[in-house]
Design a protein that fits this description.
This protein is of the alpha+beta class. 36% of the residues lie in helices and 13% in strands. It contains 16 helices and 15 strands.
Length: 457
């Protein structure tokens, strides 16, 4: 609009700012704050603002125009970028930061075409231009990264649905490189779980089953190569410590039907028998939740205690945004006991009513993280939180950690011969559960499918 502007950037975020500048395609004047203000004394903060930040902002607003964004031309879609031996391809791709550090399947034209044959979409179809580096999330880019991640061609409809979900503005793919270092988890429902041999039983979150492992790896590969979320020597991904990719989850729908509970996909409004992919941010995971007993209360009470102990600290992020979506992976044997007495909604209501945090601790946690101005009263006033969160001024008043019962997701999976469940914590408005139907090509019935994994003799 012709109005001079400048951005305040912490020095640790300068590389990420460069990536965003490239993606936006506009210059960016920057005033730099050296280090992290959250750990500086008032005296140091004042000195750094006066001596470093303020002069930088003043120059950005009144001085020379900032340098133009990097306009380096990238290879055209479908262009051959390298020819060589298998080992030479690995080395070239690694030097270009196009891999996740592990060997990749070279995305030859033949391999990519095999993936494109498993969708009715055109290679040039673009789902969205994505952060950080302004690239197109196209059908071709999905096929290329699917090949590199070790997927089978017949996974292509699932991969497309995954990227469609992540490109939904609700999911906020632009936040996948934020400092908490959360990971997207893929959840698969429908007949395609068995058709593509996803593991939903014992060891379902271990690497080892091709569908689960390669689809999970694909997500991280796509975030690196198309979105630009790379760790040093790259940039864009600012996960402070972060975590590695999560293998894809799948639900044990046979157990859900047997005990009379709706599946995870049905909870999200899809019909029984539909193939559905849901992508869900995971910033933290509980310890294994073992529970025992023949009554529903004995298991759900255990869940409340463990989830409360693990996730209460991070509740302030949900309070600030009004959204927080914990996911419970319930072992089939435990779900069977609970379902004899309680519906899923009754489980959610119990967890909502029994997982609490004091107003004082929530405020303390928020201020220790990055929000010195955190105020429950202001969040209620702004309509982000319900009125009960500011019902009194007592700092010891108890608040519901779960903002609304319906925000809790429940998925049945895992070892049916053990009494273990687990819970996964989302990162508030960053990566809330977002779902898409899997669209199968007209030729699906004729395409070869993987054989079920079998133990060796």
């Amino acid at each position: 609009m012709g109005i001079p502007t400048a951005s305040i950037i912490g020095s640790a975020f300068l590389k990420q700012a460069e990536v965003i500048t490239k993606g936006l395609g506009v210059p960016l004047a920057i005033g730099v704050y050296p280090g992290a203000p959250m750990v500086d004394s008032e005296e140091d903060l004042k000195r750094k603002v006066e001596e470093v930040l303020a002069p930088g902002l003043l120059k950005g607003l009144t001085g020379d125009a900032p340098l133009a964004a990097d306009s380096k031309v990238e290879p055209a879609p479908g262009q051959v970028v390298f020819s060589g031996s298998f080992d030479e391809v690995q080395e070239h791709f690694y030097r270009q930061l196009w891999t996740d550090g592990l060997p990749i399947a070279p995305p030859t034209r033949e391999r990519v075409d095999a993936f494109l044959a498993c969708t009715d979409r055109k290679p040039e179809d673009v789902i969205r231009v994505v952060a950080q580096e302004g690239r197109e999330a196209s059908i071709l880019s999905i096929a290329v990264n699917g090949v590199m991640a070790g997927c089978r061609p017949e996974y292509m409809p699932v991969l497309i649905a995954v990227i469609e979900a992540m490109c939904d503005p609700l999911f906020r793919i632009e936040d996948c490189g934020s400092t908490p270092g959360w990971e997207p988890a893929v959840i698969v429902n429908g007949p395609i779980v068995k058709e593509l041999d996803f593991n939903y039983g014992q060891g379902m979150m271990r690497v080892g089953r091709q569908a689960n492992s390669s689809v999970g790896r694909f997500v991280r590969m796509f975030l690196r190569n198309i979105c630009g979320f790379r760790i040093p020597p790259g940039a864009g991904d600012k996960g402070s410590i972060a975590q590695s990719f999560l293998v894809a989850m799948a639900e044990d729908e046979d157990s859900a039907r047997e005990i009379g509970w709706p599946t995870f996909a049905e909870d999200r409004g899809f019909a029984a028998g539909e193939n559905v992919v849901t992508v869900h941010s995971v910033v933290s995971i509980t310890s294994p939740m073992y529970s025992a007993g023949a009554r529903a209360i004995e298991h759900v009470q255990q869940w409340a205690e463990i989830i409360g102990g693990s996730f209460t600290y991070w509740a302030h992020t949900g309070f600030k945004t009004g959204l927080w979506s914990p996911l419970i992976v319930a072992g089939p044997s435990i779900a069977g006991v609970i379902a004899r007495e309680w519906s899923k909604d009754e489980v959610r209501r119990y967890l909502y009513e029994h997982i609490k945090v004091t107003a004082e601790r929530a405020t303390h946690y928020a201020r220790m993280t990055s929000t010195p101005t955190f105020s429950l009263e202001n969040l209620v006033k702004d309509g982000i939180l319900p009125p009960e969160y500011a019902a009194s001024s007592d700092p010891q008043r108890l608040l519901n950690v779960i903002i609304k019962p319906e925000m809790v997701g429940i998925l049945i999976a895992g070892d049916p011969g053990r009494n273990q469940s687990r819970a996964y914590m989302s990162n508030h408005v960053q990566g809330p559960p977002t779902s898409r139907r899997v669209e199968l090509p007209r030729s699906w019935a004729r395409l070869p499918k993987p054989r079920a994994a079998t133990p060796s003799a």
